[in-house]
Write a structure and sequence with these properties.
The structure is a single chain. The protein has 2 domains: about 1-20 and about 230-425, UDP-n-acetylglucosamine1-carboxyvinyl-transferase, Chain (Alpha-beta prism); about 20-225, Enolpyruvate transferase domain (UDP-n-acetylglucosamine1-carboxyvinyl-transferase, Chain), CATH 3.65.10. It is built from 13 helices and 24 strands. With about 425 residues, the chain is of the alpha/beta class. It has helices at about 20-35, 45-60, 95-105, 125-130, 165-175, 195-200, 230-245, 265-270, 305-310, 315-320, 345-355, 385-395, 415-425, and strands at about 1-5, 10-15, 35-40, 60-65, 70-75, 85-90, 110-115, 135-140, 145-150, 160, 180-185, 205-210, 210-215, 225, 250-255, 275, 280-285, 285-295, 300-305, 330, 360, 365-370, 380, 400-405. Bound molecules: shikimate-3-phosphate. Shikimate-3-phosphate binds near residues 94, 312 and 313.
Amino acid sequence: MQQFISPATSISGEIALPGDKSISHRYALIASIAEGVTRIRNYSTGADCRSTLGCLRALGIEVAGDGTELTIEGRGLAGLRATAADLDAGNSGSTIRMLSGILAAQPFRSRLFGDESLSRRPMGRVMDPLAKMGAHITAREGKFPPLEIDGAPLHPIEYRLPVPSAQVKTCVLFAGLFADGVTAVEEPVRSRDHSEIALREFGAELRVERGRIELTGRPRLEGRELTVPSDLSSAAFFIVAALLIPGSELTIRGVGLNPTRSALLDLLVGMGANLRIPQLESRNGELVGDIVVRHSALKGGTVEGALTAALIDEIPVLAVLGAATEEGLTVKDAAELRIKETDRIRTVVDNLRRMGVEAEELPDGLVVPGRQRFRAAEFDSHGDHRIAMAFAVAALAGDGRSVIHGAEAASVSFPEFWDTLASVAR
Ligand code: S3P
């Protein structure tokens, strides 16, 4: 599918966005192994979160409702059923990595696969800790999907994450739910903590202290009523669009503002963004608030170290914004970007250059000089949702009509993206 994007004179109005992708996956997965019914409101409409529901249904879990309001009949820690069918994780790294932690402990064999992009993403990072816990997993070439998981009784481990990854942390914690005793995960760089918060909400016992999480196995998890906040990573495209286009003023309602996710906002404010959060509230342990953003001239700067890990999903759209800042943007320590849905260092730099924007690829990052203009261009999402949306934002600042091929990729996290964009771009 192609999308044509014309330059905008402002990004204005009020929007609400689909539920957070990370939180939606976690609520559905934990609900399936909890006792009793969980009701989830504002579940993500993205294809990735549908993949998680598809896998759970195949494993014998009843999920009612196809839209954003779901009811999941939890069957307890021992309630999943063996399936003859292979489990399809689609494009979703979160589904395959987090579900592996649960499947590793089941008394049956399962096979998980995904689309072409997912089939190239590394799974060794979850296979290693799960093997240490007693699981038997094989993969194509030892590290790529499909994964064949021969469930086994698991024992607790102490695990220090070699890569900053919330998916890996979650996988180990989910496996730890099935092990007798205390599973400990240490993270040298803090990653999003939605799993810790959600597990507590469902009744698990967790201790978190200075980068170390201890989970007591075999808890009694109980079904809950939960509401998913709007996805800050989806909001990021609209925040950047409003900052970029003169005359913009945009309000985004009910956004998840968990401090392990909101580094982008601090960075933007530090660069001079006019961004307000009139009030914050806590919902199911997650911070939620409205964001009001106005067009602002920004300084630019450098993103590196722990900050890079904290806003890894927002880097494509941040790179676009970098070109319009005073001093430009440098991103370092971002080698992980090369193994996302696409090699995002390459796809970002390639698309920026198509717009006549100077950008340089580093082995683990990129450099985008500031004070540049965007030329209208024709570009490709390469099947990556965040690339499709980041360059839609860039195209709003173009000097004519741009074309995005493979625009349907946005549906992976945000199927309503194009309509929502049309509703605020003037
Ligand atoms: C996610 C963690 C991050 C992120 C992904 C979602 C999660 O991946 O990029 O979009 O929900 O835990 P990594 O765990 O690979 O860093």
